[in-house]
Amino acid sequence: MSTLTQLVDDLKAGRLRVVDLTQPLGPETPVIGLPPIFAASPGVTISVISKYDDRGPAWYWNTLTFGEHTGTHFDAPVHWVTGKDLRDNSCDTIPARRFVGPACVIDVARDVDANPDFLLTPARIETWEAEHARIPPGAWVLLRTGWSRRRDASQFLNVASDGPHSPGFDASASKMLANDRDVLGVGVETIGTDAGQAATFDPPFPNHSIMHGAGKFGLASLCNLDQLPPTGAVVIAAPLKIVGGSGSPLRVIAITP
Ligand code: 23J
Ligand code: MN
């Protein structure tokens, strides 16, 4: 039997499952708040073109307005200045092969419960690798923080007087994953792939800076990571083919035992 015949059979028999790692996209979707000196991204607007009415008697459709980096979304290398001159760095030019890879799920939810500013370190990645396997080239590394349990926008954004507080990556961990492990990219449950306080880090937003400078991707606002094993799932994360696009909302699908 071919691999794909086996895949279809296993899905049908329930030996494999499809897990949706995507949050709903709508007017309630929270948007990232950057320091006020920077331009803001708009929230989601959905307006009806027609709905079985005099504007279109037999059809319903909407116009959508939102920033490319809204809700569950993909970050392309061209999103960051460090990736602006790389080849195939935008949503329309990245080869589709690079949207599919094995998932390595690193569970730090308990650490994040104790410290919302938790940062993943190389030591923590090595501990995970000692327990599971070395992160293979071309993997999606998914940081399971439990942050998607925060349903309420104010809890999800977690903004204090000194800015947002949410977990992310130490710069050294981003370098290890991008350069030494050659991942496809990283995925997170938070609003962006950098920690809430990352505007104050050196360099600012180190995960974006390092990942995109190395031609790697980001996935933000994922959910249901608690339904994935540490290894063994395959993730498909294919953005809209926006010409020159820096990112896009997308449906992220995992196939898992
Ligand atoms: C622009 C500036 C900073 C950040 C971001 C965007 C994102 O998180 C994003 O969605 O890429 S941190
Ligand atoms: Mn983004």
Q: Residue share in helices?
A: 10-25%
CA-CA gap between termini: 18 Å
Major beta sheet summary: 9 strands, mixed
What gross morphology would you assign?
Answer: globular
Summing up helix and strand content along with how strands pair, one would put the structural category as alpha/beta
In DSSP terms (H or I, runs of 4 or more residues), the helix count works out at: 6
Please indicate the percent range of residues in DSSP E strands (runs of 2 or more). 25-35%
Order of helices and strands: HEEEEEHEHEHEEEHEHEEEE
- Which stretches of 5+ consecutive residues score pLDDT under 50? none
Structure commentary:
This protein has a nine-stranded mixed sheet, with helices on one face. It has a two-stranded antiparallel ribbon with strand order 2-3. It is built from six helices and 15 strands. It is about 20% helix and about 25% strand. About 40% of the residues are buried.
